[in-house]
Specification:
The complex is a heterodimer of chains A (214) and B (263). Chain A is mainly β and 214 residues long. Chain A is 7% helix and 24% strand. Chain A has a single domain, classed as Aromatic compound dioxygenase (Protocatechuate 3,4-Dioxygenase, subunit A, Sandwich), CATH 2.60.130.10. Chain A has helices at 44-48, 168-172, 175-178; strands at residues 65-69, 71-72, 82-88, 113-117, 123-127, 144-151, 158-164, 189-193, 196-198, 201-202, 212-213. In chain A, strand 8 (189-193) and strand 9 form a beta hairpin. The two termini of chain A are 34 Å apart. In chain A, 45% of the residues are buried. By secondary structure, chain B is mainly beta. Chain B has one domain (35-246): Sandwich (Protocatechuate 3,4-Dioxygenase, subunit A), CATH 2.60.130. Helix content of chain B is 3%, strand content 22%. In chain B, a hairpin with a 7-residue loop joins strand 8 and strand 9. The longest helix of chain B is centred in the first third of the chain and has 4 residues, at 65-68. Chain B is globular and about 60 Å long. The chains are: A mainly beta (214), B mainly beta (263). Strand 11 of chain A pairs parallel with strand 1 (59-60) of chain B.
Chain lengths: 214, 263
């Protein structure tokens, strides 16, 4: 399709097939329209199941902890067809990613990323306690895990953060936590459990988890 | 100025030069698409969103290290045969064979190389190989509906499959999903993570599908592939082209180096 083929009487604002928009030809940077998100639907297990999904840190890594939790809907029912993904720093506060401007970390056995379904009613990821990560403005963030939740009935992922309830001092000075209304901060705290932490996600309701716009 | 500030980053930085930057590094800021062009998380006509889509306004999360980094999930996760969904279980899938190809770009137009692309879909009869899907359409013993590829150095991907069928889903009376292929993509950063669906051109089922119509009208065309005669393979397969655009970064073309005194 020739991008100059403007329909004579467009029912919707014309956009070329490429998604390029704006009238800044030659004067503004190229900007493509982003692809819109869609729900993962009920059959995500077909495409997104990995045998090693749960292991942000390799099985048996010393100091490893499980983060377990459930996802609840607005009626208080457990959501059994969600997928939870986690991404976090290693215990030194560094990331196994080439996008870390300090250089990628190489903590043995640490992937930093996990994905887990809620088919059994509960998700579980095995990881290491994240270290404190610089906030880019001279301070340090409290240890945290970025979380995406995908499910049928969610047309886009929802994003939240896990903080550790036993990091009281670090949490008290964390800029992101402080940006959250005080009466809702507890929804972001994972509580110590036998083999790690518990973190439940409430999609709606009185205890609706704080979700973030990233 | 009052001497060198404690730098959070040691190795790799010239920590002994004077007037160190207060932050020690520049982090990209990923652009947010206009709200009017993004799919809302909930949409009343899609009934399952009623009890699941959060109701409170999300809190803005600044883009710090956790958000601008992302996992490396590459070649070791895919095998060459994962790019051909038409050959499974020692036989050929039934259906209209199609080549689906395109590029993964960011909104600056830069290709995203080495990106993991996971796809899943119904078979030609509109049936998923999944315990929850039991409507009376046949399963195909030679089709499992799962594909995985990693983009090449120019951000290109392609896979061979069969055109998925439409299927009923009970959202409303006589509700049928338009044919679609599910896509899951990782870019370079947590901010770029995307799960979406690719549609086929001119599907007559678009008008009654709330999942398609949840996309703002001005952005719907971005979810629709186009037939490609150039890549259609004579006597073998039709081709469909679909580019996926992930979020790009704010352009700062005249940014100066905070550590200006070092080369």
């Amino acid at each position: 399709m020739n991008p100059l083929d403007v329909p004579p009487d467009p029912a919707v604002p014309f956009q070329p097939r490429s998604g390029r928009r704006g009238t800044g030809f030659l004067t503004e940077p190229l900007r493509l329209g982003t692809t819109p998100s869609a729900t993962v639907g009920p059959y995500l297990a077909i495409g997104l199941t990995w045998a090693d999904g749960a292991w942000a840190a390799a099985e048996g890594t010393p100091g490893g902890v499980w983060i377990r939790g459930r996802v609840f809907d607005g009626a208080g029912d457990v959501v059994p067809d969600a997928m939870v993904e986690t991404w976090q720093a290693d215990p030194d506060g560094r990331f196994p990613s080439p996008e870390d401007p300090r250089g990628p970390s190489s903590h043995p056995g640490f992937r930093g990323y996990a994905r887990a379904a809620t088919l059994t009613g509960e998700f579980a990821v095995f990881t290491l306690r994240p270290g404190r990560v610089p906030d880019g403005e001279g301070g340090l963030q409290a240890p945290h895990v970025d979380v995406s939740v995908f499910a049928r009935g969610l047309l886009d992922r929802v994003v939240t953060r896990v903080y550790l309830a036993d990091e009281t001092a670090a949490n008290a000075e964390d800029a992101v936590l402080r940006s959250v209304p005080e009466d809702r901060r507890a929804t972001l705290l994972a509580t110590p459990a036998e083999d790690g932490y518990r973190f439940d996600v409430h999609l709606q309701g009185d205890r609706e988890t704080v979700f973030f716009a990233v | 100025m009052g001497g060198v500030r404690a730098r959070p980053y040691g190795p790799g930085m010239t920590g002994t030069t004077s007037e160190a930057s207060p932050s020690g590094l520049h982090l990209p800021r990923y652009l947010r698409e206009d709200a009017a062009l993004r799919t809302p998380v909930g949409f009343p006509e899609y009934r399952s969103t009623a009890l699941r889509a959060p109701l409170r306004t999300p809190v803005d999360l600044p883009h710090r290290l956790t958000e601008v980094t992302g996992p490396v999930l590459g070649e070791d996760r895919v095998r060459p045969e994962d790019a051909d969904l038409t050959l499974r279980n020692g036989g050929e899938a039934i259906g209209q064979r199609i080549l689906v190809y395109g590029r993964v770009l960011d909104s600056d137009g830069r290709p995203v190389p080495g990106a993991l692309v996971e796809v899943w879909q119904a078979n030609a009869a509109g049936r998923y190989r999944h315990v929850v899907d039991n409507w009376p359409a046949p399963l195909d013993p030679h089709f499992d509906g799962l594909g995985r590829v990693v983009t090449d150095g120019l951000g290109r991907y392609e896979f061979m499959t069969v055109r998925p069928g439409a299927y009923p889903w009970g959202n409303h009376h006589n509700a049928w999903r338009p044919a679609h292929i599910h896509f899951s993509l990782f870019g370079r950063a947590f901010t770029q993570r995307l799960v979406t669906q690719m549609y086929f051109p001119d599907d007559p089922l678009f008008g009654q599908d709330p999942i398609y119509n949840a996309i703002p009208a001005a952005a719907r065309h971005r979810a629709v592939s186009r037939y490609s005669l150039e890549r259609t393979q004579d006597n073998w397969a039709l081709a469909l082209e679909w580019d996926v655009v992930l979020r790009g970064t704010e352009q700062t073309p005249f940014e100066t180096d905070d550590d200006g005194d070092v080369a």
